[in-house]
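Re-running PDZ domain-containing protein to confirm reproducibility after the cluster update. Everything else is unchanged from the original entry.
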Amino acid sequence: MKSRGMAVLLVVLGLGLGATLLRDQVPVGDARVARQPSGPALVQAEAAGRLENERNTMQIVAKYEPGLVYINTEQDVTTQDPFAWMMEGGAQTQVQRGVGSGFFVNRAGDILTNYHVVAGDGGGASRITVRVMGSSKAVTAKVIGMAPQYDLALIRPSGLDAGLIRPMPLGNSDALKAGQKVIAMGAPFGLDFSVSEGIVSSVARQIPIGFGLGGQGITQKAIQTDAAINPGNSGGPLLDSAGNVIGINTQIYSPSGQSTGVGQSAGVGFAIPVNVARNLLPRLQAAKGGLVSAPQLGIKAGLLAQTGQGFIPVGVSALSAAARQEWRLPDAGIMVGAVTPGLPAARAGLRGGTREQQFRGGAVSLGGDVITAVNGKAVDGLEDLQAVLIDRKQGDSVTLKVWNAGKTRDVKVTLDAAAFR
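Result of re-run:
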C-alpha cells in the first residue's frame, strides 16, 4: 500500500510541476489507452446500446405486466346538509371513488398494494374491485390485512379465473445500488396498465411513510427513483432489469401539488423496499381482515411537550442546555417514562421514571433510562426508534445504548411474539 500511495504522490507532483518531467519516461501504448469508436461506429454503438435496453424493457413488460392489478375503490360518505333545517332529513350520502395499483404475490391470488389505496377516508373502502390484463371483467376483492404504519395492505379477489393470476417474483431490495435501471408499473391518473422507466436515485432516503399515531407516518428507509410516478401508481410494483419487484410505489414529491391540490411527478418518487413487504407478508396473510402493527418494545416516552393539540413525546434535545444539566441528562436520546410489563423492554430490564415533574411547556419523568442509540445509530425520539424496528420480524434482536445517572450500558432486546400484538 505504501508503494501505491508513493506512486500517486509522484504523479500528483509531476502534474503540479509540469507533465514534461514524466512524459518521455512513462510510455503509453494501446494497452493503456482504449480506442473509442468515432463517427459512424460511435453512432452504431450507441444505437445498439439503446436497442438492447429497449429489448430488455419490452421483455420485462411482456412477461410481468400481466401480474399488475388495477384497483377501484368506493366508499359511502355521509355528510350533513348545512341547510337541513329548511327540509326534512338533511343527511346526504355521497360515493367517494379512488383508483390505485397492486400486484399478485402468490398463486392464491393475494394482491399487495398500499394501505392508503384501500383504506378510504377513515378505516376502509366500502367496495373494492380489481381488474387484470386480458380481462374486461372487474371482480370484487376483500381486505386480508392492513398495515397502516407501513402503508401496505393485502387484498384477495373473489371469482377471478385462476389462469389470470400471475404472481410477480420478489427481489432483494438490500442489494440495490444507485444508478440501477427500474421500471414502474401502475395506473397513473387512472390510466391503467401503464409503464415508465428510470433509475434508482437513492437507496437510503429517510422519509415518513404510512400512518401512525395521529396520522403521522413513521420515518423509514425508502427507494428514491426518477421513474415517472403519479397519483394512481400507488401500490404498483417497481421492478429491476431482471423483472424482480424491488419496491412498492408509495409517494411522490410534488411542488405543483401544493398549489393545485393534485400531485404530479417531478422526477422524485419513493417506493417501499420489497424486503419490508416480504417480512410483513405472513402477518398480513394471518390478519383475517384486521390491522398489523409495527413491533413495539413497550416503552412510554418520559418527556412530553405541550402543544395546541395536547402533549406529544419529544427527544431530550428539545430541552434547554440548562435543563439537561440540572436533570443530569445527555444531549439527546429517548427518555423512558414507563415500561409495559410483559413486553420486550421489560424483559430486557429497561427502567422507567421514578418521579414526575411539570414544567412550563411540558412534563418529564425523571430517574429512568435514556436510550441514546439503537444498533449503534443515535436516536432522539420515538420515531427514530421505530424507524430501526420497522422492518424487523419476530425473533430479531436490537442492541440499545442506555444512559442512566451518568453511566451507560448496552441492553439487548429480543422481539418476541408480544412485540407484534
